[in-house]
Amino acid sequence: MAQPQKNVYGTALTPCCYDPMTGWLRDGFCKTDNRDQGVHTVCAQMTEEFLSYTRSRGNDLSTAHPPYFPGLKPGDRWCLCVSRWKEAFMEGMAPPVVMSATHMKSLRVATLTELAKFEVKEP
User: Fold this and answer.
1) Among 5, 39, 56, 94, which one is least packed by beta carbons within 10 Å?
2) Residue 56: CB partners within 8 Å, gap ≥ 6?
3) pTM, rounded to two decimals
4) How far apart are the C-alpha atoms of 120 and 6, rounded to whole Å?
5) Signed CA dihedral, 50, 53, 57, 60: sign only
6) How far apart are CA 10 and CA 46, in angstroms?
C-alpha cells in the first residue's frame, strides 16, 4: 500500500482544485510519482501577471487544449512545476501558493520560507 503523500508542513496533502481538474494524476491534488518529470507539486493560484509571464517563457497556460487542458484564468488554482514557480519567484512574478495543497517534494527546489511569502490566506 502506498504511503499517503504529504504537504510542505508534513501533514496530509489537501486538494488543490477540482474545477479545473488539476494535478499530474488529474485527481485534484498536487501528487507526484516517478513519471512526473516536471514535478507538478506547487498548488498555485493564477494571476494575470503570472499567466503572462509563463506565456512569455514558452508555457502558455491560458490557451485551452481540449479535452485535456482547459486553459487557465486568474483565480484558478493549478499544480505548477516547482521549477517554474521558483523561476517566477526569482523574477518577482511568483503566483500565490496554497501551502496545505503543495507537495513536500517542492521543498527540494523552493524553501518553505520562499513559498510561505506567497501563501494564499484562506478565509
Assistant:
1) 56
2) none
3) 0.94
4) 18
5) positive
6) 24
Strand pairing of 77-81 and 40-45? antiparallel
Amino acid 65 reads H
DSSP per position, 5-72: PBBTTSSBPPP--BTTB-TTTTSSS----TT-TT-EEEEEE--HHHHHHHHHTT---SS-BTTTB---
CB 42 within 8 A of CB 110: yes
